[in-house]
Specification:
This protein is mainly alpha-helical. The chain contains twelve helices and two strands. A two-stranded antiparallel sheet has the order 1-2. A hairpin with a 5-residue loop joins β1 and β2.
Length: about 260
């Protein structure tokens, strides 16, 4: 059941995943200013990833006092290992930072604006209302929809749904062509894209084959022999990818919009 379940999800999302990794948005990023537009949209996906990861940590490891063993040891190890890497990695200068903070540093170095994201976070800290904070920060609809979907998945309290969104719908969707483009920007504009290049290299390093296999194992363990769980996981994986495609469509439209 489990092998069929994993393969079943991968078959169901294959075409949508291909649409995202081959999206036309990657082909039209030609200048640092284009990259700024991409980063100013994408940073929200970098941010909400941490909430999805921490939700998995809460549900799949013991975070309460008193402590008791909880769940599968391999899953606990995987989640805690990813948390360490994502929340307290070494940045370009050897300082401990989250990947989100590293992304903000990359934006600042490149000249992209972090003002909107900073305002959004301040609003969220002040009243803890996600929808209100997104609206107050005038976050584009597709970006807002992506973030709200992530939190809708978290609110289900169902680890197999969170694991499916995490495993099949997150940052490994950025293709090699985009990474190569950033490397070219780094060479052409060495004072602007060193940190973005480093951020992507770190993601490749920490999210490689090892983590991919452990993430698939997590979904396998959480869905087990229950076909209903596999069906729900597949549906969430597809929905997460569809939200990502809408996000990329939004970036593309922003880049191709004719100035007034």
């Amino acid at each position: 059941m489990s092998a069929t379940g994993l393969q079943g999800i991968q078959n169901k999302i294959a075409s949508l995943r291909a649409e995202i990794t081959n999206h036309q948005v990657y082909k039209i990023i030609k200048t640092p200013e284009d990259m700024h537009v991409f980063m100013e949209h994408h940073v929200y996906a970098v941010w909400d990833f941490m909430s999805l990861l921490k939700a998995l940590q809460i549900h799949l490891t013991s975070t309460a006092i008193p402590w008791y063993p909880k769940g599968d040891g391999a899953v606990r190890f995987f989640i805690n290992e990813v948390v360490v890497g994502e929340e307290s990695d070494l940045d370009f200068y050897g300082n401990r930072k989250s990947h989100f903070e590293m992304y903000l540093d990359a934006m600042n170095q490149s000249g992209a604006s972090t003002e909107n994201m900073t305002f959004f976070l301040n609003q969220l800290k002040s009243h803890s209302n996600l929808e209100k904070a997104l609206n107050s920060a005038d976050v584009p609809l597709a970006v807002s929809g992506f973030v709200q979907h992530t939190f809708d998945v978290i609110k289900t309290g169902k680890p197999h749904l969170m694991a499916a969104a995490f495993t099949f719908g997150r940052e490994d969707l950025i293709p090699e062509m985009f990474i190569s483009m950033v490397k070219e920007f780094k060479m052409s504009f060495p004072d602007q894209f060193t940190l973005m290049n480093y951020y992507l290299e770190r993601h490749i390093e920490v999210d490689g084959e090892h983590h991919s296999q452990l993430a698939l194992k997590m979904v396998e363990l959480l869905c087990g022999e229950d076909q209903n769980l596999w069906d729900e996981a597949a549906a969430i994986a597809k929905l997460t990818l569809s939200k990502r495609k809408l996000l990329w469509d939004c970036v593309y439209k922003s880049l191709t919009r004719t100035p007034n």
